[in-house]
Design brief:
mainly beta; two-stranded antiparallel ribbon; 1 helix
Length: 68
């Protein structure tokens, strides 16, 4: 599943207006389809405002699809 890049609206301070950043031939920095999913523990506790302690080397996410 390849990434599906979308243009981003950015504020141009010099012109004083919003502009779209779009470079179709450039490596994407923003993707609409995530490649990682946070662990169930993090997903369950974040909306409740609870902190999650992560030990060094402990997995916190899983890969959704192979890198392309």
């Amino acid at each position: 599943m390849p990434a599906d890049p979308k243009p981003m609206m950015l504020w141009d301070r010099d012109r004083g207006q919003a502009v779209e950043e779009w470079m179709p031939d450039h490596q994407t920095t923003y993707e609409t389809k995530p490649r990682w999913r946070p662990s169930d523990d993090i997903l369950a506790h974040t909306p409740q405002g609870m902190e999650t302690i992560v030990r060094l080397g402990e997995p916190i996410a899983t890969r959704l699809s192979p890198r392309e």
